[in-house]
Design the sequence.
């Protein structure tokens, strides 16, 4: 199953649902973060001999981030915790929109129910939509941040040994940048959205630090420019350079 997320240019991009395994590993990483924080507090209290001066109220304040960890992370890290960042997964609404504070709060409140006998993981595995009880109530799910491979991949073969790249500046781009370029370009061509393609070409040239390319006499046009950028990136990252 996939979730369709709409970009700021109103182009729909599909993302796969995060697997149970990915969510479990992200939870383990988050657990390590929380245990590390708790141990650090204990060590600091012991090192500065503060045990006698730390009362119950102060302990509650010190350990409050542990209790609110999931909620705080998802609110301030745009739907991610440290574990989710490591696994490159993210919480979104099932319609692809950005979750609200209420959505994050509802997920957090129901996490205790999901944790009971690991019922949440069971529901995720059986439901097919990547949703635990908290997700179902909040209308959210967890997606992989890597967009689905588009049909454009089949149209862009690996450069052969005779290929001559044109834009060495493409090395400033990342794998994720190229994946987004491919999907947005493919969707824009399908929807015949020339305005989006123009905006995409400008954005790519800006990231490459080569805005002047778009005004140069030899500029091949936005479609050819984007096609060449993807091909050049494949050339420079193929390992054969």
Sequence:
């Amino acid at each position: 199953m996939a979730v369709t997320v709409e970009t700021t240019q109103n182009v729909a991009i599909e993302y796969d649902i995060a697997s149970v395994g990915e969510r479990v590993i992200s939870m383990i990483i988050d657990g390590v973060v929380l245990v590390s924080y708790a141990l650090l507090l204990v060590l600091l209290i012991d090192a500065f001999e503060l045990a006698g001066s730390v009362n119950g109220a102060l302990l509650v304040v010190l350990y409050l981030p542990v209790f609110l960890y999931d909620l705080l992370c998802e609110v301030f890290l745009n739907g991610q915790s440290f574990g989710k960042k490591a696994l490159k997964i993210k919480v979104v609404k099932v319609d692809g929109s950005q979750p609200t504070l209420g959505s994050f709060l509802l997920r957090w409140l129901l996490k205790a129910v999901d944790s009971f006998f690991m019922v949440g993981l069971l529901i995720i595995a059986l439901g097919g939509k990547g949703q635990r009880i908290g997700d179902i109530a909040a209308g959210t799910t967890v997606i992989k941040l890597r967009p689905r491979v588009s049909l454009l991949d089949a149209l862009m073969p690996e450069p052969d040994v005779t290929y001559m790249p044109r834009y060495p500046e493409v090395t400033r781009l990342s794998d994720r940048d190229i994946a987004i370029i491919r999907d947005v370009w493919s969707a824009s061509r399908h929807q015949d959205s020339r305005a989006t393609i123009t905006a995409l070409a400008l954005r790519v040239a800006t990231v490459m630090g080569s805005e002047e390319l778009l005004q140069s006499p030899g500029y091949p046009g936005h479609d050819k420019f984007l096609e060449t950028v993807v091909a050049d990136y494949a050339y420079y990252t193929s390992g054969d350079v």
